[in-house]
Batch of 2 targets.
Target 1
Amino acid sequence: MTDKPWNNRAWFFVLPVLIFVLFSSIVPMMTVVNYSVQDSMGVNNFFWNGDSWFRDLLDPSTEMGARFAGALVRTFVFSFVALAIEIPLGIGIALCLPRRGWAIGPSLVVIALPMLIPWNVVGTIWQIFARQDIGLFGAALTGLGLHYNVTQDPTSAWITIVIIDVWHWTPLVILLSYAGLRAIPDAYYQAARIDAASRWAVFRNIELPRLRKVLVIAVLLRFMQTFMIYTEPVVVTGGGPGNATTFLSIDLVKIAIGQVDLGNAAAMSLVYYLIILTGCYVFYTVMTQLDRRRDS
Amino acid sequence: MRQGILPRFALVLYLVLLMLPVYWLLNMSLRTNTDIMSGLALWPHEPTLEKYRAIFSDPAWVHGFGVSLTYVAINTVVSVTVALPAAYAFNRYHFIGDKHLFFWLLTNLMAPASVFAMPFFNLYYAVGLFDTVWAVALAHCLFNVPLAVWILEGFVGGVPREIDETAAIDGYSFPRFFLRLFLPLIANGIGVTAFFCFMFSWVEQLLATTLTSSNALPFAAVMTRSYSASGMDWSMLAAAGVLTMVPGAVVIWFVRNHIAKGFALGRV
């Protein structure tokens, strides 16, 4: 990658992309910045408000601050729990997939299917599936004598949202891990067989290191997506019961559209966006550094 | 790798669990509402296609389906077209600010749609695109163009640079080389990228519903109406849900062997 020639005319190739993304990114972003320093009184009546939205937001003793902190903690916990389940499960299932044979094609199609369902339909599917009266999942849990009610009980709501996310996105981890596993040459496995290595040793010393790169991509994508989760909880729980499943993006839309409190919502958007950016930047940098150190 | 009984069993179990909610939706869609409310049934005892017929004879549903497919198609074509030269440039050349530009593109993939919903509404309203398929197609470029650049860059990297040099020596002009020689070489990559653009545009609903009201209401948003119209029309909702899965299931079959590489953003 170091021997690429310098050529600033390459900018002309990038220009179309720049125009399209700028139109959809900078203009709305500046609108958000603009809102975040103003207060609105009715339609088109704005006042300069300085940084007070931000000060409120970042101070947990204020009402907005407490609300923001609550949503932030919930979102982080959700991201962590979802990743902690999806990554190991995804690797596990990928190891179970056959490396060749007729069954691969259909299996991959079935595995990928949940990701191709519009997000609000995913919500609808689980809204029906989790109901105690007409849903198999809800009815089965109630039948087992468990106290399960998505709209009334916070624990049920949380478990359901996590299960939905696992159902919806573990396939991404599986496909990535599978692609990584397939790239391992057979010679590695033959060598392991000669050494009479145990299954665990094969996994620990051959497969896992080779999967590192795809797992980085998986963690990065899944962190971003879980941190932005919106549609599925809105359809299934509406952020409730109470505030139990009100994640950041849900709270944001509640404030921006529900209460038409644009200043607050905009300040919140910016802080939210910065957190995601920082998280991903740190992660990305750390991983590329590690890669470089290993290569040299 | 050797395949024991246990992995196979685990795989089948996983696939069954994965399909269970989808099966349940299908089951619901083939029953009537009175039948659904009268109790659980593991399969439809008196299957009926009544709701599917109702959807196909209602112009609002059909229109919604057309709208969804139209903006997805526009978005896919635009995203892939503008991303191709950019992906080539990022892979083949150094230029001022290339690394920063690349990371900035990625940050747009991470932009939560909920942050942009409100300003997008204002922006597209101001330029007179509100409630058209173009609004949704353009808005989805926000994340699909960077995604396309990222995936295609990986595929471009798979083509040896010697090919570019040989073509130049053989007297190919750059546009002729790019269109005649280079594009066919990354045809797989283009297919996979188009699939991903299709996929993310098809599943995104928050922006799509924010930017439309009646003329260009996407299919999945028409579903929301069946909530309020007459209580809960469960079987209608289920039938519509099943229909939204069909386009995805069809296109996925064509890229099944390359899909993993696409998810790895062309980097396996």
Target 2
Amino acid sequence: MAFIPSGDVISQIIYAASILLFVVFMLYGQRIQMYVMIREVEASLYKLKFIKEEGRKIAIETIKEIGKPQTDPSARVDRYLEYFTISPQSMDPAGIVYKLDHILDVRDTRLKDEVKIMAPGSDEVQVNNLENTLEAAMALNFIYKVVRHYYIQGKKTLSLYVIMQLQMILPLVMKEAEAYASALKAFAYGQPIGDGAGPLVAAKLMHGYETRKLPKDCVVATVPIEGRTAFIIKAEGPGGNVGKPGDAVQTIIEENEGKIANVIMIDAGLKLEGEGVGEVAEGIGAAIGGPGVDQYKIEETLVKYHIPINAVIIKEDIGDAVSPMRKEISDSADKVIERVKNVILERTKEGDKVIIVGVGNTIGIGQ
Amino acid sequence: MTENDQSSTTASRISTYMLTIVLIILALSIMALLFAVSAFVVGDQVVAGYLLIIGFITMGLSTYLLLQSRKRVANLKIEAPKIMTTIECIKCGLKSVREFQRGDYVYKELDKCQKCDDKMTITAIYKEVKEKEKTYNV
């Protein structure tokens, strides 16, 4: 044979095997690569399934422990985990914000009612915490189902591109799922989470002053700062709650007939890789996440009365935002207060009125 | 069969499948090593050398597979970080730190201060992250 060199048998076998390997990789290389990717996705999917099951278990255990239900809440929890929300039609976008606001209100009321039925023995704070726990379990359930969908679709069609896309975004998906997994216990026990950085700063500023309720699920305190009158707004704690800062800011501005010199918003902001957790940055604009309804309402009112808006953010990643608050974030609250005071001194005059809003989930943070 | 039962069956099926592969590879590696010894006794040193290499490589591979599967099982845990609560007397500044207890929240008023009789208040609840983040010199 011309292709196989003469010599001992072992060398000939190795030579033939290497040629065979070369041909196999040339013809089936992509398929082998796909099977490797499928295995990788499968391993992550297995982990996601475990996290999802744990989430369900923690939610049920917490409901049983806190809510003291008469019957087993498992079936109701399973139904809760499958809830969905349909966003309003956007073909004619005029008025869509208020439609979305309405849908979100209905959703919130419905989910709270469900929790009250599942856990009749729980008070208002515990209902909020249980709702947050169930929402984290719901998010895990959704992530698992979406990844499983693309995994099965990729396997069915044997499409390299479906599997490749899934495999490429998987590290980010897993990071988010792990963050929700650690959020579960924080919500169940009512511990402050990283997203609560804004409410923590607001709580520090308003502590010791009288508070009153604002729509919806927010509180405000009138606090003298550097010779100005500051209206400090945060969601009402210590239950898991983000409130509706949009409505709260609107109410305070209307109450003061637009005579507000400045609005300062404090929120947790996503950090880029390489930036430190708890770093503080300052900027312009409405620092608020979520579906955009509150941001829209705040911006609309500010434009109406020509009120300037400043923002101070505490940097953290998605994992820190939904897991128990890190010491660096807790410690940065004092730095934020210094920055806020600087903004007030530089941007307003003595006797002015300012609004300071601590945006985020106030779980584990009172006032 | 409930979903939980199904998941546990899947888990055991995966581990049995892995274990079978590992055992087959391990058996083959032991056979290769035995053949290597017999080839060495016969005097065929080249074949013995090749068989030794194959035997050790496959044995390493099976150990690696076994370790990987154990690692995967170990990874399947949701770690609960240690949460600390800082309690402070706002009047005299007396400060103490203890582990978080259910029902704690920031600005919750607790028992009286041992020093000045004012109420102690929870001023912070946080987790301490011990492992240092990897830094990149860029």
